[in-house]
Each structure stands twice: as structure tokens, then as C-alpha cells.
Amino acid sequence: MLNLFKKKPDNLPDFWKDYEAKFQEKLPEEIAETRFVVFDTETTGFDIKKDRMLSIGAVGIENKSINIADGFEEYILQETFNPKTVKIHGIIQNERIETLSEEEAVKAFLKYIGNSVLVAHHAGFDVGMINEALSRMGLPRLKNKVLDTVNLYRGTRIISNLINREKSYSLDEIAETYNIDTKDRHTAAGDAFITALAFLTILGKLNTDRKLNLKKLFRI
Hints:
Elements: H1 14-21, E1 36-43, E2 53-62, E3 65-76, H2 86-89, E4 99-100, H3 102-113, E5 117-120, H4 123-136, E6 146-148, H5 149-154, H6 171-177, H7 188-206, H8 214-219
Parallel strand pairs: 1-5, 3-4, 5-6
Antiparallel strand pairs: 1-2, 2-3
């Protein structure tokens, strides 16, 4: 259903116009020249329409390396609280952490990501949560290109016949395969960092012929 309350193009806020303007610049052809933003959202549940984001965490990758200094982590003021998910994400209602409103957090996230290529594990969910927040703000959907580490991991099946193309692999399963430490699981920033490590490992396995570029990566 169309959102009848979305702002008309002429009435879009300046921060959205600044975000959109960055897409006038074409993405590089080479992976090493591309800025990737690996991100994760922790949420009150798994219903994109009804649940809300508790936090957004991200880390930048440039020149095929994680840039620890290029990180993002914001906690969002909770309006919906689901005690069943506390044991998963560890964020407790009224915990003494600095929070932003959903609108402030999304605005900061847009400024952080710019036109970078987004990477996430089960990306449809995390992108969906951001897009739902944008919809509540009366704004269009994210414009960034997106890569899903589940699909990319399946793409390595040519190298290993142990990988099932039909299976939806968890981040824990991929981390275990690549011996990635998961002690920071279930925080947005922690999951983003683990996903970034998995992403770089997958890139290496996909680029055995050293001919992998951004265009080919999107086709996997």
C-alpha cells in the first residue's frame, strides 16, 4: 500500500537531499576502491512492520580492510519493549545508555553510509527495518546497493561442495566455518564486525582468479 503521508520531492528535508545527492557519483568498478558499510540492527522482534530497532551498528571497509575508526553505533529510544528478545540482544528497557530518537538515529545513519555499498547478513531484514523507519518519517527507501553475506557464502559452493545453495546459513555457522570469534554476538556493532570479517573471507574465496570486480560481485 502506498504511504499517503510521504513527503513530496520538493518538501524532502535537507538531510535527505544531501544523501540523495551523493548517488550522482558512480560507484568504482574495483572492489578495492569501493567503500562498503557492513551493518546490523538489533530489534524488539522479527516483524518488520510491528517491531522497532533498538540499535544500529556498522563498520566501514575500504581497500579490502576493516577500518575500525570508521564505525557507527547508536542506541534508539525504545517505544516498544519485548522482554522475550532481551536474552538475545541483551538490551534492557531503561538501561542507562545514551539513546537517540529513531528519526535522529536514521538521520545519522544516512549521513554515515552516504552512497556506500551496504553489506549485511540476511540483509533483507536489516534493510527492511531501516526502510520501515524511513517510511514512518515520510521518506523514500534506501538508495544504496546491497550485498547479503548469505548469498555470497552460497556463491562459494563452487569451491566447496559442502555448501548447500538452498540453505539459509546463520552468522554463527559461517563464523564457525571461518574460525571467527563470536564473543560479541547479538550486539549490533559486534554482529557488524563479525559479518565484516566473514565478508572479507568470502571475498577472498570468490576471487581465486583475481578477476572479481564490483559488477561481478552483484551477480553472485
